[in-house]
Automatic annotation (TrEMBL):
Annotated family: Belongs to the band 7/mec-2 family. Flotillin subfamily.
Annotated ranges, domain Band: 9-191
Source organism of this protein record: Capsicum annuum (Capsicum pepper)
Its membrane topology: Lipid-anchor
Major place of residence: membrane
GO CC terms, sorted: caveola; plasma membrane; plasma membrane raft
Protein name, UniProt field: Flotillin-like
Gene3D superfamilies xref list: Band 7 domain
Keywords for the protein's UniProt record, in alphabetical order: Cell membrane, Membrane
Subcellular location: Cell membrane; Membrane, Caveola
Length: 484
């Protein structure tokens, strides 16, 4: 046997030993290499991979994503070299100049980046760069695990436009223009406030002087008016108290009519609103555009006309204040008188409403009591018929016959038949209630009367059956069967 050779790996190396006595691959930092064994030095230091991935968002907008990934073999500890064994298998058949690993890493990163970008909008990618980077990192790491590679660091640079699709460039220009326009507006607004402020201070001085004179006159006039107001108030309150109850009735009717009209109006408005919603939105958008245009033009005109308008304004304000004070006093007197008249009319309406409401309540109470009486009668009849039917063992025929006898239906039928056959030649059965002298020995006139009644029943029932087709109830008797 040959002499073993002792070999040691460098700080960023691992020894991959195969051959005699080793089932697959043995990874060591130092080892005695025996004959029939082969040793390969693995460089386990991480490597930087720079890419510029071209992807496309969900809106079909292309962009470049520059990225730098620091990737190397995954080394945990000497007891767990599973990932490092996968890496050793990957590089065993490649030479030092080969780009096999770089192409593999680039393919994984580009593939996962394109898939993720295609599921997101450009706005989501741009605003959520941190989340986008983390999700790309997780998905790429998941794919590299099967090759024993680990991402030590990943930096995603700023998104870059694809030539011919300058999305980010235009977006930046838009932001710059908006900031410049806002600055111009702020300067014009500050200048306007300065000029207006100076005029306002001068105007306030003059207004305060006029206000003191006006308040002195107001106080003297107010004292005279308060006496007249008190006299009118007392008379009005008496009239309001007398008409208050009558007006309450009118108010209730008015409220009910108003609610009915409101419900009907709501239903119609719902249909119209559904049809006009789209038109209203379009009009609002158009209005916003016109407002922006009008705002720019207004700012220019305000700057030109402000000085002249301020001077005219001061003069007209003084004249308007004097006229306004006079009109206010006239309006206050007219308003007070109108309010009192309105209160009197409201009291009259309330009283009339209350009277009508009481009448309606009385009629409603009468109708309710009539309905309750009918319900009680119906309930009593139901109980009565139920008890009769129960006593007759649910024999509906017997119940019907009993009710007809009890209500005199048979007598009424006889009267109707007599009227119907008046002037005709009907079949008439005649019988006598006399006993023909057969009951002379029966113990008294009382029993004779009872016997006479029982003798009248068979011919009576026979006649009813012949004329109406109805059989007597079973508890009363049966007719003889003529077929026998």
């Amino acid at each position: 046997m040959g002499i073993p050779k002792y070999i040691v790996a460098g700080p960023s190396e691992m020894l991959a030993i195969t051959g005699n006595g080793i089932s697959e691959i043995l990874l060591k930092k130092k080892h005695f290499l025996w004959p029939l064994q082969k040793c390969t030095r693995l460089d386990i230091s991480p490597v930087n991979y720079s890419f510029e991935v071209q992807a496309m968002s969900a809106e079909k907008l292309p962009f470049f994503l520059p990225a730098v990934f620091t990737i190397g073999p995954k080394v945990l500890d000497e007891a767990n070299y599973e990932s490092l064994i996968k890496y050793a298998k990957l590089v065993s058949n490649t030479d030092k100049e080969s780009t096999h690993i770089k192409d593999l890493v680039k393919g994984v990163i580009e593939g996962e980046t394109r898939v993720l970008a295609a599921s997101m909008t450009m706005e989501q990618i741009f605003k959520g760069t941190k989340e986008f980077k983390q999700e790309v990192f997780d998905k790429v790491q998941l794919e590299l695990n099967q090759f024993g590679l680990y991402i030590y660091n990943a930096n995603v640079k700023q998104l870059v436009d694809v030539p011919g699709h300058e999305y980010f460039s235009y977006l930046g220009q838009k932001t710059q223009m908006e900031a410049a326009n806002q600055a111009k507006i702020d300067v014009a607004e500050a200048k306007k406030k300065g000029e207006i402020g100076a005029k306002l201070r001068d105007g306030e001085t003059k207004q305060n002087a006029a206000k003191i004179d006006a308040e002195t006159f107001i106080i003297s006039t107010r004292r005279q008016g308060e006496g007249k107001k008190e006299e009118v108030r007392v008379r009005t309150e008496v009239e309001i108290f007398e008409n208050q109850r009558e007006a309450e009735v009118v108010e209730a009717i008015a409220v009910l009519a108003k609610k009915k009209a409101g419900w009907s109006q709501t239903a119609r408005l719902a249909e119209v609103e559904a049809e006009k919603a789209v038109e209203i939105r379009e009009a609002e958008l158009q209005m916003e555009v016109e407002k922006k245009k009008a705002f720019a033009e207004t700012a220019k005109l305000k700057a030109e006309l402000l000085s002249k308008a301020n001077v005219e304004y001061d003069i007209k304000v003084q004249e308007a204040n004097s006229e306004l004070y006079k009109r206010q006093k006239d309006a206050e007197a007219a308003l007070f008188e109108s309010q009192k008249k309105a209160e009197a009319q409201k009291a009259n309406a309330d009283a009339e409403l209350y009277s009508r409401q009481q009448t309606a309540n009385s009629e409603l109470y009468t109708k309710q009591k009539e309905a309750e009486g009918l319900a009680a009668v119906g309930k009593a009849q139901t109980v009565y018929l139920g008890s009769l039917l129960k006593e007759l063992n649910h024999n509906y025929s017997a119940l019907r016959d009993y009710l007809m006898i009890n209500n005199g239906i048979y007598q009424e039928i006889a009267n109707i038949n007599a009227q119907a056959v008046n002037g005709m030649q009907p079949k008439i059965s005649i019988w006598s209630g006399a006993d023909g002298g057969q009951s002379k020995g029966e113990g008294g006139s009382g029993l004779n009367d009872v016997a006479g009644v029982y003798r009248m029943l068979p011919p009576l029932l026979q006649t009813v059956h012949e004329q109406t087709g109805m059989n007597p109830p079973a508890w009363l008797g049966t007719l003889p069967d003529k077929s026998k």
